[in-house]
Amino acid sequence: MPDAARSLLQEPRPVTVLPGVGPKLAERLARLGIYTAEDVLLHLPLRYQDRSRITPISGLVAGAEAQIEGEIVGSEVTERGRRFLLCTLRDLTGELTLRFFHFSPAQRQLFGQVGARLRCFGEVRQGYTSLEMIHPECRRLDGDSPPVSDQLTPVYPSTADLQQFTLRALTDQALILLDTAALLPEWLPPALRLQLQLMSVAEAVGFLHRPPSDAPVAELDSGRHPARRRLAFEELLAHQLSLRQLRERVRQQAAPPLLGDGGLSQRFLERLPFALTGAQQRVLAEIAADLTQPRPMQRLLQGDVGSGKTVVAAAAALRAVESGGQAVLMAPTELLAEQHYRNFQDWLGGLGVEIAWLTGRLLGRARKALLERLASGAVQVAVGTHALFQESVVFADLALAIVDEQHRFGVHQRLALRDKGRQGQRCPHQLIMTATPIPRTLAMSAYADLDTSVLDELPPGRRPVKTVAVPDHRREEVIERIRQACRGGRQAYWVCPLIEESEVLECQAAAVTAERLTAILPELRVGLVHGRQSAADKETVMATFKAGGLDLLVATTVIEVGVDVANASLMIVENAERLGLAQLHQLRGRVGRGATNSSCVLLYRPPLSQIAYARLSTLRECNDGFEIARRDLELRGPGEVLGTRQTGGQSLRVADLLRDQDLLNAARYAADRLLRDHPDCVEPLIRRWIGVGARYGEV
Ligand code: ADP
Ligand code: MG
Questions:
Q1: Residues 293 and 388 in one domain
Q2: Which residue's CA is minimally distant from atom 23 of ligand 1?
Q3: 439/526 same-domain check
Q4: Structural domains counted in the chain
Q5: What is the CATH number of the domain that holds 384?
Q6: How many angstroms does the Cα of residue 321 sit away from the middle of ligand 1?
Q7: Which of the chain's termini has less CB crowding within 10 Å, N or C?
Q8: Atom 27 of ligand 1: nearest residue by CA position
Q9: Nearest CA to ligand 1 atom 20
Q10: 186-213 residue pLDDT tens
Q11: What is the number of the ligand closest to the CA of 329?
């Protein structure tokens, strides 16, 4: 195909090119993520109906969908409790009732015509006296029976205001364009398709929208049919390409090679009250090697809760400082930013490093002065929340940006943050840290643009947190445990997570709980921390708790990430059945940070749903964040694990990372080949699957 023709074909054709699609329908389609004619074809059926045969009424089975044909032998409108229309249909083998709860006068008239013949499709149910179909699709037959469909009938994911027949008509139109105007050109090179045994994209799409009646329905419904896998593969490939392209673009930027003499880092390590774990040493070496390069480091550091990522961050920051540059550490919450700041003060302050905390509380002149010291380079390491750094903060020479607790953000936010770090032509090195380990397959797909380091070893002496699930009518026993623990000089957390979709209510619930616990445990010093307190109040409470001035800290999930108080050995989580696995594991990670035995009590309100039961059991059995992440993926699905759901980011349309994980390696291999040998196919594939609107990280 000549280049000009190709590029013409690449132009996205809006869905309005299809006959019958006006602005109103286009708007409804947009809600399904359908913008172009190609999108119509990539909007695949959820399942299929078999209308390729007529089932005799005597052969019907309750619970299955079926198509029948028969003669109306009677109909009535009853008013028993609810008003409904009943119609009896008879064929040579038996009778069945059609039941309608709402109906138009025209329908009433139609079903009243005794002797008329109908063809109906619907789900068969066991009624009071006979089998029934509720609201079947019916069509009147005049004269000879028309032939039955020789294809399976697709059922599309849809919305309330979009009928299946509209979507079927639309796909009919788009399938014509597929044939006549090469709507979905093939971008996979023939050799690759041959090697991976992939059918053409047009063949796959045609098959999936209109499979022949003898197609294997079970295989189609389970998403394992080769046609569907062909498209899933291409989608995974497009995502790989998009992330790889992004990575390449970043790699082509200049970064300051950090070639300091290592003296500061050395002194830092010598002054630490502990020795680095083997894993920390290995990861630091990986980071240090990246930092000497004139290209930006793009590294993801995964380490379970408590594996000691902060020390690694500090050592990395020192690399920047000893090479004459600045470093910034960004945390998702003020609470965590402050804690990092204090840690850094402890560790680096004594080495003469200038550290600044950019907090929301710093206003007016003080804020201006700090920003000036950042811009002049007087501040060597800055700590703050992402939000604060998203504003207009200018650095003299930002060499390294560290993002903590990445799991709170989706892919798109991560990429947006990355851009914030850029200063002029130069791009700082980037270290992204997360405590939610991502299963390998997922990491390959969501973080294909990053190198990965893993802290797979906890500091010595840690003991697993003993976890129990307790129904909340046994709350008194739990309170007794707190009394015992605190009497022994330990501290405890009581977490009240969000149960209403409102922060106000969450904070109120925590305040009420704190009051009650204070009344029941008069000998204990009880503190309260929640998201609606002023930063100063939060800070005071946390500092008091950390210094041992409080025995019991009642908190909302603001303490979910990062908070580090080694003497706290007991955690109670209320309404644990409402929380996700990753979040519970994070919360539990607040204890078990010292050398004593710690426990976590998950209070739940029975009865437990099956999935809540599975979550609580997983936590009871398992302390390993990687294993928990794997099970989380099974329970929740990848969209949630990666945080795309919360952030409204785009998830996969056809592929399912769990079901199709065996395709990921092939997709990565194909991405290599395409980037090397067929670079002209890259852009169209990305555009087809990821679209122009939701492009990953504009660079
Ligand atoms: P996370 O990876 O969850 O961010 P932190 O960095 O908060 O973990 O570390 C948890 C605790 O372990 C901190 O109190 C930290 O000082 C301590 N720690 C980190 N590394 C070591 C080590 N090598 N030996 C002993 N304690 C360590
Ligand atoms: Mg941390």
A1: yes
A2: 276
A3: no
A4: 4
A5: 3.40.50.300
A6: 22
A7: N
A8: 459
A9: 308
A10: 999 999 999 999 999 999 999 999 999 9
A11: 2
> Do residues 134 and 180 both lie within one domain?
no
As given in the structure block, the two tokens for residue 52 are 């390729």
Give yes or no for residue 343 CB within 6 A of ligand 1: no
The pLDDT of residue 155 is 94
Cα–ligand 1 centroid distance for 438 (angstroms): 20
Ligand 2 midpoint to CA 338 (Å): 12
The per-residue pLDDT for range 412-470, each reduced to its tens digit, is 556 655 665 566 667 889 998 987 666 666 666 667 778 889 998 988 877 889 999 99
Minimal-distance CA residue to ligand 1 atom 5: 308
- The pLDDT score that the predictor gives to residue 411 is 56
**Is residue 21 within 8 Å of 162, Cβ to Cβ?**
no
In a domain, 568, yes or no: yes
Question: How large is the greatest C-alpha to C-alpha distance in the chain, in angstroms?
Answer: 97
Per-residue pLDDT at 82: 80
- Give me the domain span that covers residue 381: 263-455
Report which protein residue has its CA nearest ligand 1's atom 12: 308
Tokens encoding 354: 């200038």
- Beta carbon of 276 within 6 Å of any ligand 1 atom: yes
Long-range contacts of 387-394 (CB under 8 A, 24+ apart): 387/360, 388/358, 388/359, 388/360, 389/328, 389/330, 389/358, 389/420, 390/417, 390/420, 393/358, 394/423
Atom of ligand 1 nearest to the CA of 455: 2
CA distance 250 to 426: 10
CA 40/CA 541 separation, integer angstroms: 55
